[in-house]
Design a protein that fits this description.
Elements: E1 2-4, E2 14-20, E3 24-30, E4 36-43, H1 52-64, E5 71-78, E6 89-90, H2 93-102, H3 107-123, E7 128-133, H4 143-146, H5 152-156, H6 166-179, E8 190-196, E9 200-206, E10 209-213, H7 234-242, H8 247-256, H9 259-264, H10 270-278, H11 282-306, E11 311-315, H12 316-321, H13 323-332, E12 340-343, H14 348-366
Parallel strand pairs: 2-5, 5-7, 8-11, 11-12
Antiparallel strand pairs: 1-4, 2-3, 3-4, 6-7, 8-9, 9-10
Helix pairs in contact: 1-3, 2-3, 6-14, 10-11
């Protein structure tokens, strides 16, 4: 489907932003001024063996034809950057090899993103490509927030909290900073960003920097999500392994058979669960209650890390559209000092486009 188009004539200096998710491919064209010239999306369930190359070949060349000559670079959303990638990076053979090594850390996202990069290189071999990382915004996490209490040799292998949804949390931080005049903001501004969608995470942001977050080494930790479990006792997982569940079966269950779907026995969609709960469905009521409980608990944790909160911001499909959830959460947080509540439309594409332009310009000046 094509989400947006414009009758404006093709302009110079467009950035193509590509976002390969576990079940879909999204693409946007953004102008130098930040205008969205075009965007589109195609379903591509990679976990079920779909080939992004076939979808891209059948879709993008014709969709981008009106602006093809004006596209000057491409930016890719990459979920996991590991310890090595803490900012936008231009793609070259060395970087691509390093990205391939990171695929096991986020196979449902990093693997498809890498395939999209290779496809684009074959389609437009002279187009400059960049990668932007969901983990990069959390590079500012202090050691006490990033470290797990595990043996030192494990930590030396890079086993730590990375955090995710960083591009979304960064966008929220930038929008909040723009809305609040500097002379009226607390010093420093304490913001809790709530990215609530199919995947969910919170980020404690102080003066624009991530200081704590709910996701960890992988996107499984933290809040209850559509089909992901969020935090569970590691002993429970050991118990299941000892009972004979294979590692592959456990992986598939934790990522695709848990969360709202498992609690409700009905759906991973909050919108569907709201309707079912209103009709008296017990599983839907339980799923919403557990989701809300975990969300409130983790907001409390983020507030503790910040020493209070000045702004609570909601983004993502649930965060932006579930008015009842926001009202319930805000009502339950009256024990916190007064804070502003904001709803901010997710726009990771803008963050990626700006970051690619800014980094490319800085590289050009340094040379």
């Amino acid at each position: 489907m094509t989400g947006l188009a414009t009758t404006a004539a093709p302009g110079a200096g467009l950035v193509l932003v590509l976002n390969a998710g576990s079940s879909s491919l999204k693409a946007s064209l953004l102008s130098e001024g930040g205008n969205r010239i075009w965007q589109g999306q195609r379903q591509c369930p990679m976990a079920e063996g779909a080939a992004p190359e076939l979808v891209l070949e059948d879709w993008l060349p014709s969709a981008l034809a009106p602006w093809s000559d004006a596209i000057v670079m491409a930016g890719h959303r990459v979920v996991h950057g590991g310890e090595g990638f803490t900012g936008p990076v231009r793609l070259d053979p060395t970087v691509l090899t390093a990205l391939a090594d990171l695929v096991p850390l986020a196979p449902l996202h990093n693997g498809p993103a890498l395939r999209v990069m290779h496809w684009l290189a074959s389609y437009r071999p002279n187009l400059e490509q960049w990668a932007c990382f969901d983990t990069a915004f959390h590079a500012t996490l202090p050691p006490e927030a990033a470290a797990y209490a595990i043996p030192a040799d494990w930590r030396r292998q890079g086993l730590r909290r990375f955090g995710f949804h960083g591009l979304s949390h960064q966008h929220v931080a930038e929008v909040v900073a723009a809305r609040i005049p500097p002379d009226s903001a607390a010093t420093p501004l304490r913001l809790i960003s709530c990215h609530l969608g199919a995947g969910c995470s919170l980020c404690a942001i102080e003066a624009g920097r991530s200081v704590d977050t709910t996701m960890g080494f992988t996107p499984l930790e933290g809040l209850v999500m559509a089909t992901r479990c969020g935090s569970v006792d590691p002993g429970l997982l050991l118990y299941l392994l000892r009972k004979g569940l294979s590692v592959e079966e456990l992986d598939q269950a934790l990522n695709g058979q848990c969360g709202l779907l498992a609690l409700s026995g009905l759906s991973g969609s909050m919108q569907e669960l709201r309707a079912a709960a209103a009709a008296g469905h017990g599983g839907a009521k339980l799923a919403i209650a557990v989701f809300r409980h975990r969300l409130l608990r983790e907001i409390g944790a983020m507030a503790a890390s910040l020493g209070g909160v000045d702004v609570l911001a909601f983004t993502g499909g649930i965060g932006e559209h579930d008015d009842a959830l926001r009202e319930e959460v805000v009502s339950a947080l009256t024990w916190l000092s007064p804070f502003d509540v904001m709803v901010i439309a997710a726009d990771e594409e803008q963050v990626i486009a700006r970051a690619c332009r800014r980094t490319a310009a800085a590289e050009a000046l340094s040379h």
